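Bench log. Compound arrived from synthesis this morning; before running ITC I wanted a structural hypothesis for how adenosine monophosphate sits in the protein. Inputs:
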Amino acid sequence: MLYKELAELYEKLEKTSKRLEKTHLISKLLEKTPADNLPTVVILLQGRIFPAWDERKIGVAARSVLKAISTATGIDADKVEQEWKKSGDLGLTAEKLIAKKKQATLASHDIKVDKMFQNLAALASASGEGAVERKVGLIAELLTSAKPLEARYIIRTVLEEMRVGVGEGSMRDAIVWAYFGEKLKLKYDAKENDLMISDEEREEYNKYVAAVQEACDLLNDYGKVAQIAKTKGLKGLENVSLEVGTPIKVMLFIKAKDIPDAFENVGKPAAFEYKYDGFRLTMHRNKDKIVLFTRRLENVTNQFPDVVEVLKEHVKSTNYILDAEVIGIDPKTKRWLPFQSISQRIRRKYGIHEMIKEIPVMVNVFDALQIDHDNLIHKPFAERRKKISYIVKEAPGKIEMAKQIITDDVKEVEKFYKEALAKGNEGIMAKNLDAPYKPGARVGYGMKIKPTMETLDLVIVGADWGEGKRASWLSSFTVACRDEDGNFYEVGKVGTGIKEKEESEGASFEQLTNLLKPLVVSEKGKEVKVKPKIVIELRFEEIQKSPTYSSGFALRFPRLVRLREDRGPDEISTLEDVKEAFEGQK
Ligand code: AMP
């Protein structure tokens, strides 16, 4: 398969904002993609080269791309930079300069999708001495063969800035259309931008959508799912099962207004649990192998050998996937520590054994996806919880089942809620006793109840270089919330609550600068724009309506509370949350 086909599709996708049209276009490409190429083509369509949970990053700075364009075209780096400043887009810069060059001299060669992928993967693994030069070489090699349009998308992929908007929903539907479209007699009407389908057919269609969705939930890999759909059909999809060791997205919860609201959604009676203020950990075991994943699906097994030991000692099964919240404990007072303290343990790569003594942790198990080779995700929550109790031998302060009550009485819940807060929890969770486990979905099977929002989790989208003694640091950060489609809306700037230098706790200008520098996509005077990756939690005095920011709101006196390294930009506060907080303050 040639990269040209992908580039042409990207261009079409970029030109439309209609979801159905996108789905149609993608499905047409999937249809003709050979099975062997599917994993590569699908991941490239998603604008990445590794699944979102993979720790490997392409890790190429704009400067290196600039050099590569210069090497491939023979045009002076200064000239390339001038061109870049004009459009602010290195993809377009590459396209324009390659076009110029191609007219004058070399003809382009076909780039195979595999070659493209190979070079990108090599970028990610290049490290050590001479890595920058090697990266420049790998990009320049692709550009030398590239047609102008291909150059645009090669560069955007390298910089992880695809922006063609292939969401997971479109990819899932495109898989259905591509491989079951004929069978389901699906017909996309481009003029009407509509799927011509009767109610009866719709029902059948939804069955296929659900099968693809479930396979995606379990494998977390759309390329693999497309391959199965193409080669093994519906049966193949239905046979996909949980794989111990393959990260699976956790179930998410929605916010309840209050206790009666929670009952309304999860039914009566319901389970109520402490909402521990720690971090989510999914714990997999198969035979001797134990693997730990965060909610962002990062493998943190090496950071938590103490948890691995606890599991070996206190969980009486050698095949399971358990879902838990891990909290830090003060070794002297034995009190529970707030999340900030253990956040250091998640990123710590050395000195782990000292850290274990400094900040011991306790595991609170609240759900199970598999036990003893038995897939439990379709079983009711009450049954899953019972199964956990058979294998988890509680050891106070080390591993416990989440503290739970089952009741239909608001008063009793109120008492439990107070007790939970007094113990240092964030609030409580309300859970539907009959509900299945829905990976990756924010469904109403569980609801969180916590005191009115005092903070927002926002992503940094820009920053300003400081002045005077802060001149080498980024010192004021533009933050944004998101909507359901993954668009970001600015809500303000924050520069307080941040320490000068990196210390053991709290965020510093130095640390934020180091985190953000590789994410810079453009610079203008003192202002930089960055890729939305770094999430911070902010406190504020008030929210006002404001035309200054794209959200239509502005935070007054925002103050950074902490870095939220356990959160991705897709998990931050939504525009709805901001509106709600605005309305709630009156
Ligand atoms: P939030 O992060 O505010 O959306 O709240 C949901 C998070 O609370 C989950 O992702 C867990 O990390 C955490 N949590 C703490 N205790 C529990 C519990 N008993 N059940 C489920 N989630 C919990």
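What the model suggests: The mean pLDDT is 92. The radius of gyration is 25 Å.
ITC booked for Thursday regardless.
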